[in-house]
Amino acid sequence: MHIPLAEPPAAAGAEHLEQQQAAITRLGHELRALVEATVRTAASADTLHRVADGVRHVTGQLTGRRRARTEIPEVDGFPGGPRMYSPVVGAGSPLAPPVRITPTDDGLIGHCTLGIAHEGPPGYGHGGMSAMLLDELMGQACTAAGTPGLTVSLQMRYHQPIPLETPLRIVGRVTGTDKRKIFAAGTITTQADPSTDLVTADAVFITPDPDRTRALFPGLEEEA
Ligand SMILES: CCCCCCCC(=O)SCCNC(=O)CCNC(=O)[C@H](O)C(C)(C)COP(=O)(O)OP(=O)(O)OC[C@H]1O[C@@H](n2cnc3c(N)ncnc32)[C@H](O)[C@@H]1OP(=O)(O)O
């Protein structure tokens, strides 16, 4: 394994991190509510303009230092720790459902519900969302197995549309390894009917060699 897995936060800073994560989670929750309201509303153009002015004003309040592109946020651990702004699991991301992940004997299970903001065909999930969910679950399963890697191949099969506003169950597991290559598989079902596969996937991940890891993730070096 070439990518060092994230350490848990130091006890001294743990309280500060918890407060920061709680605030990020709260803002993420409100932003997801705003996104949901935005894509459902039938408000008049006047109202939309007024809201847009208000949102611009609110955005202007997020001032101060902005993190650099390759910087790992202090509230995160990578790989193998929290990802507060991930578009899949990030409690602070307005783009994320967000998926809650729990380990199993055989890999990982994720739970989430997609909303209208994730719509592809009317009433159903966007196929790209399914790919994102499965890529994340399989990628995190690689990390959980001690072999973190980047996706080099993702084969999707869409058997049935994913219903929106319906609790989903996403499974990711490692099926084999070959030197730096990790093979993984995943499925999406509803929570109510976990035996009917809606979407399945196979993927190949590769653990980059140390030089490539340093070049891709300079933030890992700074953390160490
Ligand atoms: C915490 C984690 C959450 C993760 C969540 C989601 C995951 C992601 O979204 S990752 C982002 C999307 N993926 C990427 O951006 C990756 C882009 N690709 C790359 O940067 C490079 O390909 C990289 C660094 C992964 C590997 O490059 P490199 O180390 O040069 O690999 P390379 O030497 O070409 O190949 C290594 C082996 O894999 C094989 N291989 C390469 N590509 C593939 C492929 N598509 N399928 C099968 N095998 C492949 C090669 O044949 C080689 O095999 P062998 O050792 O037997 O000869």
Automatic annotation (TrEMBL):
It is found in: Cell projection, Ruffle membrane; Cytoplasm; Membrane. SUPFAM superfamilies: Thioesterase/thiol ester dehydrase-isomerase (SSF54637). InterPro entries: HotDog_dom_sf, THEM4/THEM5_acyl-CoA_thioest, Thioestr_dom. It catalyses: (5Z,8Z,11Z,14Z)-eicosatetraenoyl-CoA + H2O = (5Z,8Z,11Z,14Z)-eicosatetraenoate + CoA + H(+); dodecanoyl-CoA + H2O = dodecanoate + CoA + H(+); octanoyl-CoA + H2O = octanoate + CoA + H(+); (9Z)-octadecenoyl-CoA + H2O = (9Z)-octadecenoate + CoA + H(+). Residues 123-191 form the Thioesterase domain. Pfam families: 4HBT. Belongs to the THEM4/THEM5 thioesterase family. Its main location: membrane. GO terms for biological process: fatty acid metabolic process. It is a peripheral membrane protein. One of its GO terms (cellular component) is cytoplasm. Keywords: Apoptosis, Cell membrane, Cell projection, Cytoplasm, Fatty acid metabolism, Hydrolase, Lipid metabolism, Membrane, Transit peptide. This is Acyl-coenzyme A thioesterase THEM4.
